[in-house]
């Protein structure tokens, strides 16, 4: 039985969002002791002032400064300082939107399945035209590559998903997050958790919404970092590499090589031409299905995501050093024995 829950919310310049997120999370709470902790990485937009004000108004809300700034370090810090007597750790994102009773649903799911972690699908939503196009293509096979937590509709045990709730004992046993990871720390953690016998359950009845990046430049930067982070995880956990992840850098490299070699072998242009055709068909199909001209940006958005992820992954493979993880040398992000 779950008696206590620790909710960790890492922030950095989230003054415009943090109060709304807390309003959503505080609705229909589970019948147990709950501690909310904001771990701020040095915000300069007034986030700290907002949280300090809310701290006086809400029961069970605390604030800590996260000197390492990264989300991975922030969650670990919250666990170190507040997790000693907690049964469950919930990780929330200040950029997401949460349904009514989100925490209650997580606790019920965690108790209802024999799992160490419950992960949830992310449904992309957008306000601007590009955001909507990114959201639509992200939840399609060409955008998500079949990732279960991107618009997934079938609850099942998975290798990885968007982190929501974990048994505190399991989080500690796996060593917490790797605090040097700027991206992909959740997937890297899941590799360690599974290697130690942990089970991860995707509950598609519990869904969150998030807004994609609003410009092509921000989208490219985001996916470059995603790809680079995944390369670190693959180097540390080689068995975690999926064919769909290999397909992106391999195909994008093939397209680039075909263009370079096309003066000598013109037929090679059929490779990038086929890719452009698929993107064009995707754009038209999404625009038609959504009854919106914004869908025509889905193809360019998908190209940005594919090319940036591939470039980030290849850059990481070529430039980052990483030691393969072994269970007897588990990362101890919480400073504890595994």
TrEMBL record:
Protein name: Glycosyltransferase family 2 protein
Glycosyltransferase 2-like domain span: 7-172
Keyword presence, Transmembrane: yes
Pfam families the UniProt entry points to: Glycos_transf_2
Single Gene Ontology MF annotation: glycosyltransferase activity
Record's keyword terms, sorted: Glycosyltransferase, Membrane, Transferase, Transmembrane, Transmembrane helix
Membrane spanning stretches: 246-265, 271-289, 296-318
Family: Belongs to the glycosyltransferase 2 family.
């Amino acid at each position: 039985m779950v008696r206590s829950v620790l909710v960790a919310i890492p922030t950095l310049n989230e003054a415009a969002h943090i109060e709304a997120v807390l309003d959503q999370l505080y609705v229909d709470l589970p019948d147990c002791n709950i501690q909310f902790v904001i771990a701020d990485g040095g915000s300069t937009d007034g986030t700290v002032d907002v949280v300090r004000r809310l701290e006086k108004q809400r029961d069970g809300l605390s604030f800590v400064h996260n000197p390492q700034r990264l989300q991975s370090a922030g969650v670990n810090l919250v666990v170190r300082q507040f997790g000693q007597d907690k049964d469950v750790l919930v990780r929330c994102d200040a950029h997401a939107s949460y349904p009514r009773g989100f925490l209650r649903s997580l606790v019920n799911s965690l108790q209802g399945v024999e799992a160490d972690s419950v992960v949830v699908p992310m449904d992309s939503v957008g306000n601007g035209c590009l955001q909507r196009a990114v959201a639509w293509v992200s939840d399609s096979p060409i955008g998500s590559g079949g990732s279960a937590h991107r618009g997934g509709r079938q609850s099942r045990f998975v290798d990885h998903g968007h982190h929501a709730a974990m048994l505190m004992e399991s989080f500690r046993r796996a060593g917490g997050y790797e605090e040097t990871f700027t991206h992909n720390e959740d997937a890297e953690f899941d590799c360690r958790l599974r290697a130690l016998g942990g089970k991860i359950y995707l509950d598609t009845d519990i869904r969150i919404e998030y807004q994609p990046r609003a410009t092509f430049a921000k989208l490219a930067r985001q996916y470059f970092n995603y790809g680079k982070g995944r390369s670190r995880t693959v180097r540390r956990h080689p068995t975690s590499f999926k064919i769909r992840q290999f397909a992106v850098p391999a195909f994008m490299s093939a397209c680039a090589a075909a263009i370079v070699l096309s003066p000598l072998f013109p037929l090679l242009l059929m490779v990038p031409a086929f890719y452009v055709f698929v993107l064009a068909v995707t754009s038209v199909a999404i625009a038609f299905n959504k009854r919106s001209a914004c869908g025509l940006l889905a193809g360019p958005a998908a190209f940005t995501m594919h090319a940036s992820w591939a470039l980030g992954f290849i850059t990481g493979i070529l430039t980052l050093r990483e030691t393969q993880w072994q269970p007897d040398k588990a990362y101890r992000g919480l400073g504890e024995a595994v």
